[in-house]
Amino acid sequence: MSSTATILDAAKPIPERLVMPATDHLVDSLDPEPHPPDDAEDLPTAAVVFDVDAVSVYYGEFRAVQDASLKVHEHEITAFIGPSGCGKTTLLRCFNRMNDLISSARVTGSLCYYGVDLYNPQVDAVEVRRRIGMVFQKPNPFPKSIKDNVAYGPKVAGLAKKGPAMDDIVENSLRKAALWDEVKDRLNDNALGLSGGQQQRLCIARAIATDPDVLLMDEPCSALDPIATTRIEELMHDLKTDYSIVIVTHNMQQAARVSDRTAFFSVEVNADSDSRTGILVEYDFTQHIFSNPSDERTENYVTGRFG
Ligand SMILES: Nc1ncnc2c1ncn2[C@@H]1O[C@H](COP(=O)(O)OP(=O)(O)OP(=O)(O)O)[C@@H](O)[C@H]1O
Ligand SMILES: [Mg+2]
Fold first, then answer.
1. Nearest bound ligand to CA 64?
2. What is the pLDDT of residue 273?
3. CB-ligand 1 contact for 89 (6 Å cutoff)
4. Mean per-residue pLDDT, 42-64
5. Cβ of 307 below 6 Å from ligand 1
6. Residue 11 and residue 47: Cα distance in Å, rounded?
7. Fewer CB near the terminus (10 Å): N or C of the chain?
């Protein structure tokens, strides 16, 4: 859909991801009041990828997330933490309009991607999902060959046809996902024959293959052993040079190890109506959240006294 491509291209016109976009609207979107960790005064303020402003998400009458506001920054890893049911996945799914696929889901407030309202009716959700890839909790390769898993997205998006151009995309994606050396001699084998950790890296390669800007990861390591988890964490660290990453994790050490900023969500219970809703309690640099949080609820959670 060309009108959509145009509206999103206007949002991020410069293909080289390492070049800081210099258009006026991006300068305007810089966070004016960051709270850098003590040892990071010299860090440049990264451009804002997502500006979430007073977002609430409903499933029918039920409000799963209430009034969340935060900014996700370019080439950073942003972690979402909090107890089960506080709306982490629900909010993450708003970033690439996956909630569109749930008929009862409704999003209010504003969610901008490089200044463009993702919920503008002119924006095509398929194009949004090409630019904003997702990796799920349970590795979910297609029951196809390793190569076809990676080639599927670029083929559907029309990025390349079968042949050397597609072979390059497959190889580069597998290399970026740190899987190439393990699978280069078995590209035509069924992906379901890979180990869980390899399958998850294949899913990351599949997400990278459509040349996205952002990777959303919903508990990507929860089904993996500690060695595979470490590999994915190292990989995330490498990938943030090229991508902006938002990760949901229940593993507090993981959030502290890999992320630059952390958002702590909790469940607020309304005693009168007995209704529950997810709220964003605190969002700051990860170092602050884990060493000196502003909110007592955050402190209780990160120190294990709650949740
Ligand atoms: N498709 C859906 N339809 C109706 N309610 C839903 C749907 N998906 C999630 N919910 C509800 O929305 C709330 C938030 O769910 P969500 O999955 O976002 O939480 P979460 O923080 O990701 O939890 P967990 O840590 O267990 O994954 C929960 O009360 C859940 O039951
Ligand atoms: Mg979840």
1. 1
2. 77
3. yes
4. 89
5. no
6. 12
7. N
The fold adopted by the segment(s) 2-302 is Rossmann fold (3.40.50)
Point out the ligand 1 atom lying closest to the alpha carbon of residue 83. Answer: 25
Is pLDDT above 50 for 208?
yes
Which tokens is 134 given? Answer: 């997702």
Give 256 Cα–ligand 2 centroid separation in angstroms: 18
Nearest CA to ligand 1 atom 22: 89
Query: CB neighbours of 144 closer than 8 A, spacing ≥ 6?
Result: 152, 190, 191
Instruction: State which ligand 1 atom lies nearest to the alpha carbon of 265.
Output: 21
Q: Whose CA is nearest to atom 12 of ligand 1?
A: 64
51 pLDDT above the threshold of 90: yes
Q: Give the global pTM.
A: 0.86
- For residue range 93-109, list pLDDT tens digits in order: 999 999 999 999 999 99
* Atom of ligand 1 lying closest to residue 90 CA: 18
- Report how far ligand 1's centroid is from the alpha carbon of 304 (Å): 22
The predicted pLDDT at position 96 comes to 94
Residue 240 has pLDDT above 90, yes or no: yes
